[in-house]
Amino acid sequence: MTIENISSTKAFGGWHKQYHHQSTALNCTMRFAIYLPPQAEQQNVPVLYWLSGLTCTDENFMQKAGAQRIAAELGIAIVAPDTSPRGEGVADDKDGAYDFGLGAGFYLNATKPPFDQHYKMYDYVVSELPAIIEAHFPVTKQRSISGHSMGGHGALTIALKNPNQFNSVSAFSPICNPMDCPWGIKAFRGYLGDDQQQWQQYDSCELMQNSQQFVPALVDIGTNDNFLDEQLKPQTLVNIAKNKGYPLELRMQPGYDHSYYFIATFIEAHLRFHAKHLQIS
User: What SUPFAM superfamilies does the entry give (predicted)?
Assistant: First the structure.
């Protein structure tokens, strides 16, 4: 698999880099970002995969969250893919809506035409991207995953479906029960059709209810998040975790909203949470 470096910037003794490559899973050219901490010059380091939310690219988290300083201290690489396939011929919402189509891949494998031709973000994040990262960069096979909003949904569902692949999972403001909120219903119907059995495989509540192996999970949500009641609906997930005995810590943070100011405030706690489960002292 050939990758092309398109930017390289030093930060906190390490390097933030962007790459282009031709994706087999998505059938288009994709861009991803990677932060390599200074320890990567001497040894292989574990990886945190970050999944961003609606309308974002690989750049939002890397530029706004302030994660590199702590990643450099802990010796964790961070990989941030784009949020959907891109390019000529990739299907988009016919009205150009922000919550479906380009920038809104929902980290699933679409089965409904025309989106089934490119929208295979689940396969990309679970299989193709880790294979590229582990082939081209000084990293171990120790992985954790995190994300925000739509990406929080992606991180939780991917970890729940692949407990042997990820040591830990965290999320900021995740869409906890997409089968029961407008964002999720629109995306699932558009990408998967009307069969709700297909929807269940990408809903954190359904997956946690049926989980047999546990991945330690940390979730932060702001009490002033304007999407809290209509889109995020964390209480269902909390209730399932409690009944299941699932190791989920969900923290409601007073006064915080849905923004990157919120993420920047608590990203250090999330990185230290993952470092503990990645067995970094």
Answer: alpha/beta-Hydrolases
Sort strands 14-23 and 169-172 into parallel, antiparallel or unpaired. unpaired
Of 23, 84, 149, 204, which one is the catalytic site residue?
A: 149
Q: What angle do CA 68, 165, 197 make, to 5 degrees?
A: 115
Q: How confident is the model at residue 281 (pLDDT cuts 50, 70, 90)?
A: low
What six digits make up the tokens of 138?
A: 């000084």
How do strand 45-51 and strand 217-222 relate by DSSP bridges? Answer: unpaired
At residue 260, what are phi and psi to the nearest 5 degrees?
Answer: -75, -15
Biggest CA pair distance of the chain? 51
Looking at residue 279, its pLDDT comes to 82
Has 220 been annotated as catalytic? Answer: no
Residue 195 appears among annotated catalytic residues: no
Give per-residue pLDDT as tens, 227-246.
Answer: 999 999 999 999 999 999 99
Question: Phi/psi of residue 110, each to 5°?
Answer: -65, 145
Identify the bridge partners of residue 81 per DSSP, sorted by sequence position.
32
Catalytic annotation, pick one of 225, 270, 274, 277: 225
pLDDT tens digit sequence for 206-231: 999 999 999 999 999 999 999 999 99
Is the pTM here over 0.90, yes or no? Answer: yes
Question: Who's near 176: CB < 8 A, 6+ residues apart?
Answer: 153, 156, 204, 205, 232, 233, 234, 236, 237
For residue 225, indicate whether it is catalytic.
Answer: yes
* Cβ–Cβ under 8 Å, residues 217 and 169: yes
